[in-house]
Amino acid sequence: MIEVKHLYKSFGDRDVLIDINAVFENGKTNLIIGQSGSGKTVLMKNLVGLFKPTKGEILYDGRDFVGLNKYERARLRREMGMLFQSAALFDSLTVRDNVMFPLDMFSNMNYRERKKRVQECLDRVNLSDAGKKYPAEISGGMQKRVAIARAIALNPKYLFCDEPNSGLDPKTSLVIDELLHDITVEYNMTTIINTHDMNSVLGIGDNIIFICRGKKEWEGNKSEVMSSTNADLNDLVFASELFKKVKDMQNGTSV
User: Which of 56, 74, 189, 202 would give a disulfide with 7, using CB separation of 3.0 to 4.6 Å?
Assistant: First the structure.
C-alpha cells in the first residue's frame, strides 16, 4: 500500500500539486486520471522519486520515501516495477534479453535461475515462443507485453504504468488492461496507472483518483464514475459521444 499525505509540489512560484491525499491499495488497479497539465504526471514522478515533494509524505507500507537516505531509497526502488508510455525496449536486445536485463542488474540469481525467471515472465504474458525475436519483429501490443514481463521480473511490490495503452488499438488496449489487472491481483501488487483511456477507467478502475488543476477533485471506482456530479470529471470522462450515450441510458434519458 502507498499512502500520500498532504503532498505539495511547486516549481518556483507555480503550485503544481496542492494538498494531495490518497491511498493506493495493493491487489487493486489504482488509476490517476486528469486532463493534460492537471498534475497527474508530476504526481507519479513524485511517487517514484524522480521529483522531490515541496512538502508532504509518501509512505510505502509505512516507510517514508521522502525521508529515506540515498541507500534506503535505492533499496526501495528495487521493489518497484515500471511500465513506460513507449515500451522502452532495447532494440539491439532480443525479447528474452530485454526481460533478463533487470535480473542481470539487480538480482542475486545465478544464470540458470535468471533464465527460468525470464521464461516464467514471458509465459505469464503469453509470449512463450517470442524470446528469440527482436522488438522490431513484433507488434506494438506484443512489445507492451514484453515491457510488462520485464517490469514484473523482479517480483515488484509496486508497479507504475505511464499511459500503458498509448498508441494501441482498442482491442489490444483491452488485452493490456486485463493483463495488468490480472497480474495485480495475482501478485497482490500495488499498481498505479496514469491514463487518458476512458475504456481503462470503466474496465479496470478499482480505485480512481481524478486530479484537476493540481488538486484531487474526486475519488471513487469504475461504477461510481458514471454517476459523478463533478463537472470537470464529467467533461473528461464523457468527452466521447459514446460515453455520453451510456450515461444518458443509465439516467433514463432519451438518446
Answer: 56
SS3 at position 24: strand
Report the relative pairing of strands 55-60 and 2-11 from DSSP bridges.
antiparallel
Give, in order, the Cα–Cα distances in Å from 92 to each of 65, 84, 131, 158, 191: 34, 18, 13, 28, 29
Distances (CA, A) of 1 to 193, 223, 236: 14, 22, 27
Helix (H), strand (E) at residue 4: strand 2-11
Per the DSSP assignment, residues forming a β-bridge with 207 are 30
Give pLDDT tens digits for 7-36: 999 999 999 999 999 999 999 999 999 988
The partner residues of 194 in beta bridges, in order of sequence, read 32, 162
Residue type (1 letter), 85: Q
Phi, psi for residue 128 in degrees, rounded to 5: -55, -35
The structure's pTM equals 0.88
Residues recorded for the chain: 255
HEC string of 163-207?
CCCCCCCHHHHHHHHHHHHHHHHHHCCEEEEECCCHHHHHHHCCE
What the block records as the C-alpha cell of 47 is: 511517487
